[in-house]
User: Which sequence fits this backbone?
């Protein structure tokens, strides 16, 4: 808790910290909050309630915008590295890609995906999504599927840096490839 308070103070969140100093954090957030995520840039905190409502809050904790995700089972939140998109992570291979400036959500569904959808962003802004043994590359807005492939394993975790994509598999294996080179139905292989 100390590390997160120190980071929040450094990011300009002193007003929220002062507000919460008199009592527990739960007083400032709605009941049944499922997840919270700080934007990487700016003074925005996103909250996800159990009913799918996503609320953007300023550095004093005040709501400054909200929408209800269209996902049937929203689980967690994740921001794009530039803070331009907020991703609602769901089950059944679904993600909700939110443009906070326009309060619009685009639902992305991995074809044949099962389990939790795992998002990562490439340096060019495209979205990589893995679910089950499927991986797909989508455009930055989440409206166009650019490529898809079947993984040689079940995805457990996913990370991207620049163009490199790494999937951690449920069996402990790692699969890495150049995400920009992903083409339809060619499975990524270690070392690509």
Assistant:
């Amino acid at each position: 808790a100390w590390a997160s308070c120190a980071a929040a103070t450094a990011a300009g969140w002193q007003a929220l910290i002062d507000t919460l100093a008199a009592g527990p954090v739960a007083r400032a957030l709605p009941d049944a909050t499922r997840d919270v995520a700080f934007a990487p840039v700016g003074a925005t905190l996103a909250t996800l309630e159990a009913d799918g409502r996503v609320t953007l809050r300023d550095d004093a904790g005040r709501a400054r915008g909200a929408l209800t995700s269209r996902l049937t089972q929203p689980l967690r939140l994740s921001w794009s590295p530039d803070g331009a998109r907020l991703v609602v992570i769901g089950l059944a291979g679904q993600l909700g890609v939110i443009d906070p400036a326009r309060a619009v959500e685009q639902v992305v569904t991995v074809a044949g995906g099962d389990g939790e959808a795992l998002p990562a962003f490439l340096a060019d802004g495209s979205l990589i999504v893995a679910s089950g043994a499927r991986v797909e590359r989508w455009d930055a807005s989440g409206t166009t599927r650019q490529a898809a492939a079947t993984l040689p394993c079940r995805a457990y975790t996913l990370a991207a840096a620049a163009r490199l994509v790494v999937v951690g598999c449920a069996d402990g294996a790692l699969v890495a490839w150049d995400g920009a080179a992903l083409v339809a139905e060619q499975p990524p292989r270690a070392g690509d």
Remarks:
- The first helix runs from residue 2 to 10.
- Residues 100 and 148 are 27 Å apart (CA to CA).
- The chain is about 10% helix and 45% strand.
- The chain has a mean pLDDT of 80.
